[in-house]
Amino acid sequence: MRHHLSGRQLSRNSSHRHALLRSLSVSLLRHETIRTTIPKAKELRRVVEPLITLGKEDSEANRRLAFSRLRDSEIVAKLFDTIGPRFKARPGGYTRILHMAPRPGDNAPMALMQLVERSAPVGVEAAPEDKKAKKADKPAAPSKEEKKAKAEAKKGREKAAKEAKAAKAVEKKAAKKTGGAVAKKKKAAAPKKKKSSK
User: Which letter does DSSP use for residue 89 in this model?
Assistant: First the structure.
């Protein structure tokens, strides 16, 4: 009988399970979205949501309690400085679990777990007003004279590179000719050994 044994075993012993959930909690709070299996995500929800509730009220005791569960001071600081205040008005339900396609290797059911109110991603497009401001900040397009000067400089560089290449080819040919002549002279200069017959 499984009296008082709540939660999923996840095919691990208790210490391994606690370590797994701690590492998943830190990853979720750091990246605000992670990909994992559905049973792990459902079990992680029971660990992370109380931590976010703890982060809504900043106090020394709460910070110590969060650190004892996460063991990562950087994430504890993020929890109390940014994540907790973000969910101040929300009474619960801080995470969402989105079902994904099964994992190719073992067909395990996969899920995308993320915080409901996430910070804006880095690659978000700016608002139209911001785009206009950025266009105003950009330097003016180069004039025709500048373009012409750049084109001439490029042609000059290409011409110099071709001339250098041609000069190298001529030197190589000359080296081959002189190298062949030197080898012939060495052969002629070397005395022939007579075979001794016994």
Answer: T
Round the CA-based radius of gyration of the chain to a whole number and report it.
36
| Per-residue pLDDT tens digits of the chain, which is 198 residues long | 989 989 999 999 999 999 999 999 999 999 999 999 999 999 999 999 999 999 999 999 999 999 999 999 999 999 999 999 999 999 999 999 999 999 999 999 999 999 998 876 655 454 556 555 555 555 566 677 777 777 888 888 888 888 888 888 888 888 877 766 555 555 555 556 556 555
What pTM was estimated for this model as a whole? 0.61
The gap from C-alpha 90 to its chain's centroid, in whole angstroms, comes to 32
How far is it, in rounded angstroms, from Cα 85 to Cα 94? 12
HSE-CB at 38 with a 13 A cutoff on CA atoms is: 10
Give kind and range of the element (H or E) at residue 126: none
Q: What are phi and psi of 105, to 5 degrees?
A: -70, -55
**What single string gives the DSSP state of each residue in 12-59?**
S-HHHHHHHHHHHHHHHHHHSEEEEEHHHHHHHHHHHHHHHHHHTS--
Place of tokens 């703890």: 54
Residue type at 109? P
CA 70 from chain center: how many Å? 24
DSSP letter assigned to residue 116? S
Cβ contact 80:58 at 8 Å:
yes
Q: Provide the 10 A C-beta neighbour count for residue 54.
A: 20
Buried b (16+ CB within 10 A) or exposed e, 66-88: beebbebeebbebbbeebbebbe
